[in-house]
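ok here's Prepilin-type N-terminal cleavage/methylation domain-containing protein, seq below lol
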Amino acid sequence: MKKIIKKTKKAFTLIEMVIVLFIISLLLLVMIPNLGAQKNNASTKSEEAFKTTLQTQVDMYDSDTDNSNGNSVPNWTALKLKGYISDKQFKRIGDNYEITKVDDKDKGLSFEVKSVKKATTTSK
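and the structure came out like this:
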């Protein structure tokens, strides 16, 4: 006699699917806030690195030019024209950064790059 083997379809039950969807939604709830925080952290680090680069370029400009009397503060246009900053950097600087003169008794005259925070307005 031949035995007839009945093949049964195997599939997930509704309960199993609901459990999987619940676990996925929990993981998303944990990950989404962290992604926003990581984006803000990366943006902050990028701005700090850019400011450090600008400070280095201002220091190079200051050491290469004769500014012994300390009357003139370098500006971004002068740095761009003399090749210390690129066009891309110049566009990114915009009104976001300024160069200020620092007269320290121990270190002498130097220049510092500072971020200029723009005031944000909200409209309703």
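fwiw The beta strands are 97-104, 108-115. kinda neat tbh
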